[in-house]
Amino acid sequence: MRRYVALLMSAVLVGIDQILKVLAIQYLKPVGSHPIIPDIFHLTYVENRGAAFGMMAGQKWLLVWATAIVILAAIVVVMAGKIKNAMVLFAVATIIGGGVGNLIDRVYRGFVVDYVHLKVINFAVFNFADICVTVGTAMLLVYLLFYELRHKNKEAAGETKGA
Q1: pLDDT tens by residue, 102-127
Q2: Were 42 and a residue from 7, 94, 113, 117 both cysteine, which residue would form a disulfide, CB within 3.0 to 4.6 Å?
Q3: Who contacts 48 (Cβ-Cβ below 8 Å, separation ≥6)?
Q4: What does DSSP assign to residue 123?
Q5: Residue 11 above 80 pLDDT?
Q6: Full residue range of the structural domain in which residue 56 is found
């Protein structure tokens, strides 16, 4: 049951992402940029034809296929019930949602719509789907570093003491 909830959550994230991108196209594209907090946080319309930070620009189909394979593999793992930990399941579902959101853009628009611009740190313009992928990945790293690693260290210590 949890796996279906996770995939439903992925679908909701895709929906939110696509709505935000349609709004960005409709309202931001004509003006280019709109300051929310001047010189700190702006909404800026950008058509990203590459991957993160515009890398691999012009490699649309390579990005489409690579993303599709990763998403498909993640969905298969979720549907097979291989993920037992709720945090990991939530993280993978979040990554799927973000990946699908940007995949839709690449396939149907030919570019990814970006609009979140943190000017204060001079960071690349990004979008909600990017946030989903980043948060999901960070959650997986936290799990692997602080739970899984600690759990394995405790098991190893227990095996050593018992020997």
Answers
A1: 999 999 999 999 999 999 998 889 99
A2: 117
A3: 54, 111, 112, 113, 114, 125
A4: P
A5: yes
A6: 2-162
Sheet holding 33-37, edge to edge: 33-37, 41-48, 112-118
Burial of 39 (0-12, 13-18, 19+ CB in 10 A): exposed
User: Is 114 considered catalytic here?
Assistant: yes
Q: At what angle do helices 2-23 and 128-142 cross, to 10 degrees?
A: 150
* Distinct helix (H) and strand (E) counts, the chain: 5, 3
Name the DSSP letter for residue 119: G
| Other CB atoms within 10 A of residue 126 CB | 20
* 105 a catalytic residue: no
Map residue 57 onto helix, strand or coil: coil
Which of the residues 17, 39, 105, 114 is marked catalytic?
114
**Residue 137 exposed, middle or buried by CB count within 10 Å (0-12, 13-18, 19+):** middle
- 116: nearest Cα among 104, 106, 100, 128: 128
Residue in 45, 37, 39, 26 with CA at minimum distance from that of residue 114: 45
